[in-house]
Amino acid sequence: MTRKTAPFAEKPTAAAGRGVTWVRPELVAEVEFRAWTGDGLLRHASFRGLREDKPAREVVREAPPDAPSEAPAPRARPAVKLTNPDRVYWPDAGVTKQDLADYYAAVWSRMAPHVVNRPVALLRCPGGIAQQCFFAKHAWKGQSREIVTFHDPLGDDDEAPLLTVDGLPGLIGLVQGGALEIHGWQSTLDDLERPDQAVFDLDPGEGVDWEAMIAAAREVRARLEAQEFAAFVKTSGGKGLHVVAPLVPGAGWEALKGFAADLAQAMAADAPERYVATIAKAKRAGRILVDYLRNGRNNTAVAPYSTRARPGAAVSMPVAWEELGPDIGPAHFTVRNAPARVLDHSDPWADFRKAARPLAAR
């Protein structure tokens, strides 16, 4: 049944045809799927088996009875033109620039509260993860007009503007610029000098297993709750976990950094065989770094639902505490499976802002 060319009326893109063996359209397969995409593809498709009771030529595109035509209703996309939409950003996962834009459109309702109006820094990889990547926090020449910029009130007058996002078009503008990671400040433009969250980045040293990481996250939670702060957890999309405490803006940056340092250093002092609060890699083998340095002014942590510029196209995913276990590792959620999770699961961070508590000033 093998043939050299695609049997479709419309020629597939180069990315879609990469590594594909084309065959004559003679067999009928039963496929379960969630929806049609705006491009006429199947979303979250699952092969059920072959059908021998129906000739291939009788298989046609069906529409719901009340549909005006057989054409699928396209999902609304932000009005940002993507150049080279077939450019592959993650070669091992086959994820293109268009795939990344579609992913963010799918999760935007969950992601928006955690990135809108918040200063962001980026890891930009215009050629994908196999090419050169660089960290960027300033506006660049030729960036999308949808990307919002602002000047740091404490920065130099001649310093290039910083970046923020005010909606999905701006986020897609970052995708157009090759931003594969989005990292946010712990404050918003509404109250730049008074942070609204504390982040504890748990980073495993060599030889640390996943059960130890889960135990560390739960200990951070217990210590926060002992001080009457709520604690939310997310996978990092890399190797670890992030525990985040929502705050009522009030105390300044020094108070936040001091609070986070106290907690991290207390964990290291109480269990030096398990935890460290210093960055030096030489001291981290077999132990977990409780990184509190994400909580300074102009310091950032990867945003919820942001992708990571690592093989597999993993994303940083908010999860419920009871979900933590061996089945969900730090890079379990990806561009491919995260949209289905958003559709099928309630938001574990739905009450994030409602749970905010004030931090005492120092």
Give the SSE layout:
Layout (H helix, E strand, L loop, with lengths): L1 E2 L10 H4 L4 E2 L4 E5 L2 E2 L5 E2 L2 E6 L36 E3 L4 E2 H19 L4 E5 L9 E3 L11 E3 L11 E3 L3 H9 L2 E6 L12 E8 L5 H17 L5 E4 L5 E8 L4 H18 L4 E2 L11 E4 L9 E2 L15 E2 L18 H7 L12 E2 L4
Parallel strand pairs: 16-21, 17-18
Antiparallel strand pairs: 1-2, 3-6, 4-5, 7-8, 9-10, 9-13, 11-12, 13-19, 14-16, 14-18, 15-16, 15-20
Helix pairs in contact: 2-3
Could you please describe the fold and organization of this structure?
With 362 residues, the chain is an alpha+beta fold. The chain folds into 2 domains: 57 residues, OB fold (Dihydrolipoamide Acetyltransferase, E2P) (Beta Barrel), CATH 2.40.50; 271 residues, DNA primase, PRIM domain (Alpha-Beta Complex), CATH 3.90.920.10. It is built from 6 helices and 21 strands. The strands form 7 sheets. Strands 14, 15, 16, 17, 18, 20 and 21 form a 7-stranded mixed sheet that branches. Strands 10-9-13-19 form a 4-stranded antiparallel sheet. Helix 2 crosses helix 3. The longest helix is centred in the N-terminal third of the chain and has 19 residues. About 3% of the residues have low confidence.
